[in-house]
Amino acid sequence: MKFGYFDDRNREYVITEPETPLPWINYLGCQAYFGIISNTAGGYSFYRDARLRRLTRYRYNNVPPDLGGRYIYLRDDESKEFWSPSWLPTRHKLKDYSCRHGMGYTVIGSTYSGIEAHTRYFVPLDENLEIWQLTVTNHRTTRASLSGFASIEFCLWDAQDDATNFQRNLNIGQVEVDDGVIYHKTEYRERRNHFAWFASSQPGAGFETQREVFLGRNRGWDKPAAVEAGQLTNSIAHGWSPVGVHQVKLELEPGETRQIVFALGYHENPVDQKFDPAGSQIINKRTVKPVIAKYLDPVQADAAFERLRLYWDGLLSVFQVNTPDIHTNRMVNIWNAYQCMATFNMSRSASSFESGIGRGLGFRDSNQDLLGFVHMAPARARERILDLAATQLATGGAYHQYQPLTKRGNNDIGSGFNDDPHWLIVGVSAYLKETGDWSILDEPVPYDNEPGSEQPLYQHLRRSFNYTLARLGPHGLPLIGRADWNDCLNLNCFSDTPGQSFQTTTNKDGKVAESVFIAGLFVYAGRELAAIAKHRGLTEEAQVYLDEIARMEAVIHEHGWDGEWFLRAYDDFGNKIGSKDCEEGKIFIESNGFCALAGIGLEDGRAESALNSVGEHLATENGIVLQQPAYSRYYLNLGEISSYPPGYKENAGIFCHVNPWVMIGETRLGRGDRAHDYYSRINPSARENISDLHRCEPYVYSQMIAGKDAPTFGEAKNSWLTGTAAWNYYAIAQWILGVRTSIDGLRIAPVIPKSWPGFTAMRTFRGAVYRIVIERKGEGNQIALTVDGTPIEGNVVPAPTDGRKEISVHGVLS
Ligand code: BGC
Ligand code: NOJ
Description:
The protein is an alpha+beta fold and 814 residues long. It is built from 19 helices and 42 strands. The two termini are 40 Å apart. The chain binds beta-D-glucopyranose (BGC) and 1-deoxynojirimycin. Residues 487-488, 503, 640, 649-650 line the site of beta-D-glucopyranose.
């Protein structure tokens, strides 16, 4: 069952049924001002940091789940009936309801009682504000006398505090209304120099700023008393809960259409110019007023929308493909790329499943996200890399997370996740291969943001590599620390106290438990580092890395191989995890996927055997589960992984983030059919027809799909903000379609299904556009390349040195 359809031409997903299984959201904003918006106009906005600068209020885990948002009400002033064109909050039976989620914008609308209304929501580029363009058309045969109401509820900035500290917060709310614009200025009187504003292109009919006056006592957003009464009262909030509501009057002749622009924004004043007149308590509005005036003008709003459209055209055009599979095309060309930008912008902070409070930017997460967006936004990738590296510790380890606003490591989450440092090498390498910008390695970057500790970025990479060498366990495998990629494999935790954090509790000294996954990652990242060193002319250093890698590979073969697959780890007692000898958790995806991806065991058949075992024991029609058998009870020596009921999350859920490791491994074995089959099993577009089972948005990946041990097998959770976005993009783009960046140029090495006659692609790379045509003449993966009509040796097309801007690449697979 479906709840909408893809409109690929317009790069939109069109939801036609408001009651989707879960709120299906989109993101507004792509630079500093952001919002999430659901298909029924729920959601909230923030400036830079979803926790520390929350503009509007949203109640997570609410009943019903999605209440609070950018709500518009229309009221027929003759019949006194009122409704919301976005279905929520009033839940009227609407005609032609649709929600079009597009690239950085959402349009929601419907027709009710002959009145058609659509609102287009978006954030203009380079501005800290959002625009709601409401278009209302009277399809009746008679004149319509309507009121429109646009409403938001302000959050008192710090979302955590706002949701908990009522003894203070119900006293601090302050607003100003000036010239029809509502200004939210809670705490502006003291240490804040920022405020929010909410404006209407057609003020005058009334406003409301005190929530209780607007909603009425004991009422919710479904039946605001002031809307029912038909007239706002111009209330001024003192404490309690400030809201922003504007009323507009609409007298529409039959067939007449009117557009109203509402805008909500964030603004900062210089600390010494907060008030006007100076010495008063009135907000200085000199610099904000021109901005407000500009965007209330529908012509300017349209122009801003057009700029946004061009911005997304530009980003997405960097890589476009045309394959025989519509789901591949749609995800690569539109939605997966779009999701990669969302994970870059948000990391794991704000979605329907991430409250914007708990998690900042993850070190490991953000480095992996680079794989998916570096080609679209290389300059921002550069900045992100330098920020991330500045939270690396002098030991080479890293803060696991940092706050985007302060860019400081988050002490509450701590460090000691022993895979973290290597992801910096992976991220930097992806950047270098994309851009060829080697200067980044010489950028001075501090450790732990400590002034004076700056060293060239390259030195950070060395420390990352050495971090593991200094932390090897009894078998010579890397010590796992708090956990590795699998945050829930907490082998030093031994927690028996309810509520204790698995992420920060350590009850063992951590000198025994080892990770085969980190060993695989060490080999993979180490090879990247060796290539970087070699390119810098550091041949001897490169050789040292290669020697260490060879040693680690030998250790993996000796102590990390279980006969048919790679082990996962050794616990604190030196017992195997992920072995046929285990009662539960006999085989895991991470070590097998990653070792194969890293090319370990390619020559001696172990990689093949490992992936065959994954296929046999872990693959399901809904994707590959994380391990089998699922843990049926809590194991003190394993930690959070066994805290989940079987089939969910890390306990044998289908973790979509790691499935691509297997896909890439399959391409390394030359098995394109299997690789693409695995790709399709979790491709959200390919699952659209089972939206009633999948339940999350069909246009973006979810972190997890319930595994076969769960009663809800096939149900997705945690959509949007997941490493799944980048890894699936990377797997399909660079390994299955095989358009792969390398230090020396663009490698063309497709490993596609046998049944495909070929595909075409367009890739902008280091300033030139590559038009790629791949033709299948035989069933294998052998490629013969012709570049601008001339056959070349090998499969790397070097970046042009003669200023050519267009390169045509023809590849024949045999
Ligand atoms: C989840 C992990 C997540 C971790 C981060 C755990 O509860 O299962 O997937 O990475 O929390 O805080
Ligand atoms: C989600 C985290 O964001 C990611 O870093 C981690 O690797 C996975 N969970 C697996 O635990």
